[in-house]
Fold:
Amino acid sequence: MPPQKVNKAEMKADIHPKNYRMVVFKDMSNDYSFITRSTVDTKETVKWEDGNEYPLFKLEISHKSHPFFTGTNMLIDTAGRIDKFNKRYAKKK
Structure:
């Protein structure tokens, strides 16, 4: 079945955000920045590599600093925990 054509008159008006624009996101823990489209509200601006000024949104963590993505997760001693649990709750004969 071919897709149906939609008349522009039938589409809902004013349902999309007005402030959908390019925004710079900056990871404050390591100064990593990236630019993407967003509707986030910001009061600060920053000059980007292309020479234009864009709204700036500061992040506490990004994929460049998150332990899961950087591989610096703490290893949990699950074997030790299991032994400790078994010792504590072992059935006494």
User: Anything to note?
Assistant: The two ends are 73 Å apart (CA to CA). The longest strand covers residues 21-27. DSSP finds two helices and four strands in the chain.
